[in-house]
Amino acid sequence: RGYLNFRGKQNLGNIFIMFSPFFSSLAYLLFILFIWSLFFFFSFVYYNKQCSKLNNAFDFNVATIDEKDWFLRLDMCKKFLDLT
């Protein structure tokens, strides 16, 4: 499962759960972030490593993101989409 958390990095009360198939590519991941950010101003991605099967490129866990304050920002998504 992938967790898209809107409106706040730590606020687990506003969670949108995406069921399988999970993000199959970086382009899809960034596209979803970009679209949701249009409605919610910004988006954060939390990925529970134990709940999904992903490629190594996406193999990170929630604890690591929280500890290092590591999240994907909308400007990164927009830059990627502009290049594709």
TrEMBL record:
This is Uncharacterized protein. The lineage of its organism: Eukaryota, Viridiplantae, Streptophyta, Embryophyta, Tracheophyta. Keywords: Membrane, Transmembrane, Transmembrane helix. The chain crosses the membrane at residues 26-47. It comes from Striga hermonthica.
